[in-house]
Write a structure and sequence with these properties.
Elements (H helix, E strand, L loop, with lengths): L4 H22 L4 H5 L11 H21 L5 H27 L3 H25 L1 H27 L1
Helix pairs in contact: 1-3, 1-4, 3-6, 4-5, 5-6
Length: 156
């Protein structure tokens, strides 16, 4: 299969844009993150944008891989819809956590996001294994984010 570079670029740009807009809308409130008590294993603040950038690129490549797979269009569409919903949940989590300072709601929201990511990943695996593998770091990072989110809720 030949790579369609325009479609790949768009597929990668979508999650990067979602993450970028989320960061833009929450950056004024991220100073609070320095002030809150954090659980053990909390990474330095600089690691978050670096990790998310890598994850967004991997997610975009995974979605492109599904979009271009030789699979039934209904199956691809269903998995990409779940993926798109997970992007929306990802976007809104930052607003709930940073702008609203509602750590409990953010944790519940993140648990729902995690479930959506797992569903999308399973669906991606069913369409193209590589796409599923590319989503696994996202699941792991959001699992860790759940630990951090819940820890911040408990400590603050």
């Amino acid at each position: 299969m030949k790579t369609d570079w325009k479609k790949l670029a768009l597929a990668v740009a979508i999650p990067l844009a979602v993450g970028g807009l989320s960061a833009l809308l929450t950056m004024d409130n991220m100073v609070m993150f320095d002030a809150v008590k954090k659980p053990p294993l909390a990474p330095p603040k600089w690691l978050f944008p670096a990790a998310w950038t890598v994850l967004y690129v991997l997610m975009g490549i995974a979605s492109y891989s599904v979009f271009t797979a030789d699979a039934p269009s209904g199956k691809k569409r269903a998995s990409l819809i779940v993926y798109a919903i997970s992007l929306a949940f990802n976007f809104l989590w930052s607003i709930i956590f940073f702008n609203l300072d509602n750590y409990l709601l953010a944790f519940v929201w993140l648990c729902t996001l995690w479930l959506l990511i797992v569903i999308a990943t399973v669906q991606f695996f069913g369409i193209r294994r590589t796409a599923g593998w590319l989503m696994l770091p996202y699941i792991l990072w959001v699992s860790f984010a759940g630990y951090l989110n819940y820890g911040i809720y408990l400590l603050n």
